[in-house]
Structures are given as structure tokens and as C-alpha cells.
Specification:
Layout (H helix, E strand, L loop, with lengths): L1 H31 L10 H55 L6 H22 L2 E2 L2 E2 L11 E3 L5 E3 L7 E5 L2 E4 L4 H4 L3 E2 L5 E5 L8 E2 L3 E2 L8 E7 L6 E6 L5 E6 L5 E4 L2 E6 L7 E6 L2 E2 L1 H12 L6 H61 L3 H27 L2 H5 L1
Helix pairs in contact: 1-7, 2-3, 2-6, 3-5, 5-6
Protein name: Flagellar hook-associated protein 3
Main location: other
InterPro entries: Flagell_FlgL, Flagellin, Flagellin_C, Flagellin_N
Length: about 400
Amino acid sequence: MRIATQQLHERAVSLMLERQSQLASTQQQLATGKRFVSASEDPTAAAAAMRLTREIASLERYQANADLAEAQQTAEEYALAEVTEVLHGVRELIVQGDNGSLNDDDRRTLAADLDQRLETLLGLANTRYGDEYLFAGLKSGTRPFSSDGRGQFTYLGDAGQRMLNVGPDVRTAVNDPGSEVFQGIRAGNGVFETAADAENTGSGVISVGTQVGDFVADDYVIAFSRSVPDGDMTYTVLDGSGEVVVGGQYQSGAAIRFNGAEVVISDAPADGDEFSIKTAGRQDIFSILHSAARALEVTGDGPQASAQRQIALDRSLAELDGALNQVLAKRAGVGARLNQVETQREANAAFQLTAEEALSDTQDLDYAEAAMRLRTQLVGLEAAQRSFLMIQDLSLFRLIG
């Protein structure tokens, strides 16, 4: 009988301690609002909660990056919109300056206006967002463009793009290097460029030309000559090696075609005048504006000055259109990236909501169930305590009695 009483005592103590442990666990769950406090309580759920917590943290970082990317891309889009507006204004000035009714003072006024707009354009190319230059590539702490004041413009940035992760396996560029926005613009009509020789004495004006087939790249010269003083004016197109490509009698305004190029020369070129055609090089936007301003400063209304001025301004207009197209293409690219960021932001938010709901299901406490369980455990503990007290009072003599 002594052994049985001891076993009952041990069982009662064990049961009471177990009920106390269960009650303490439930009380801790209610205090923390979590289904488990340590991973050992539910290793599978704890591992899932840890994975979901990391996933939510990653999504929050992606959202922060998306906010930063959107802010910088919006700043770039605004700057490019301003650049577009400046270039449209410049175009109007050049068209106005190509009016033969203007005098030298009128053209000098337009040239000064162009120079002012050139300074505005340089300022936009050096736009900053916070402490970073938008168009400096990866060298965001370096002012990207500088000018020597004499028509030489230097890019001090690089060709890199700053990238941000805005989603799982989704990266977006937050800037465009200035070399791709303000430089690399094809001269002339984009395929070849035309010019009049500086020694020309006639009033001949050459157009910017048109590509009419596969242009054969070379340095061509169109030379004008008259066999006798009052004879017909003829032209000869020579390639870079001096070989004759084509020739004929000159007619003002008639197209001259050769090797994929078509140009029109109008008015009256003089005997010995020459015009050049060569493969288009590349230049920056600032040089286009600078050249147009200098063309407007050419004085005089004589045939040579007028021809020189018109050729330069016509070329500037064609090159400015190329610059506008390049800037507009960059604006379209920024717009596409902004759409990408917004789409990814919405996807991140949806993923985050799903992950947070799953995390809540995994680790958050059901307060109603826990409260009911607490009441049940309190009743159980009280019963265990009463049982323990009853067993303590048992003795061999009281059983005999």
C-alpha cells in the first residue's frame, strides 16, 4: 500500500506540473500574440514563418527601391521634357533666322538668343537629383558637361547606367548617360553631310540631301566649271580618289543623284565653286546650337554670305531634328521604365499581402481559441491541485480507520 500511495503522489505531481506548463505556455501566447515563442514548440511552422519573414523583408526592400527608381526616373523625364521644349524654341529661332528679309542686327539678336538657350540646355544636361547628377552615368558625383566658351563641349561622365532591383529578377535603370542623350547625333541628314567650300564666290546653295538607295560612303566633291566665259555651267561629281562618278549640265534646283545620294543645288554657283558630300559624322546637341548661332553672325547680304548662311542654317535644322528624335526616344524609354516600375510595385504589393497573410496564419494566435483553452487549462490545473491535496492527506492509518 505504501508503494501505491507513492505512485499516486508522483502521478499527481506530474499532472499538476504538466497543467502548469500548459497554462504558462498559453499565457505567454496571449501575451505575445504568437502561436509559438520558440522554434522547438513547432519546428515546421517556425521554419515557414522564418522563410515568410525573409520574403516580406525582401519585398519591402524592392518597394523602397521602386520608390527611389520612380523618383529618379520622374526627375529625368522632367529634365528631358524641358530639353524638348528648349529645342523646339531653338528650331523656331533657326527658321526665323533663315528668313532672307532680316538684316545683320536682326540676326545678331537671334544669335544672342540662341547662345542663351545653349546655356539653358547645358544647365539641363547638368541637372541634379539630390546630390547626384542625372546624366553623368555611373560617375554621378561628377558634373557631366563642361564648355570652354569657344564651342568645345566635353563630357566628363561615363556610359554606365545605375540599376536598381525592384522585384525578384527585375532590374530597372534609373538614369541615362549624357553621352546617349546629348551626344552621338548624326550630322547632316543622318546619312551624309553636305557643305559649300569656304572659297566659293557664287550664290549656289546645296541642300542637306536625301538618301535614295544604299549610300556608298566616300568623300565626294561636286565641282562647277564653264568651258568658255559665257558657256553653259557644268558639274562633275568626283569620288575620294578623284575619279568621275557622274556629271552634266547644271540646272538650278534640279536633283543630282549618285551612289545612293540625292542633292539639290540652287541659284548660281560660280566657275570653280565646289561642294562636298561625305559620310555623316557624330556631334553633340550643344555644337548644333553653337554652329547655328555662329551662322547667324555671318554678316552681309551678298550672294556668298547669303549662301553660306542658308546652307549652315538648313543643316542646323536637319541636325536639330535628329537631336529632337534622340531626346524623344530617350523620353519614351524613361516612360516605359516608369510603367515597368509601377507594374512591379503593384505585383510586389500583392505578393507582400499574400506573404503577410500566410505569415499571420502560420504564427499569429487565435485569441478566441486561446482564451477558451486558457479557461479549460485553469479548470484542469485546479482539478490537478485538488487531486494532489487529496493524495497528500492519504495515509495507511486513515485508510485503516
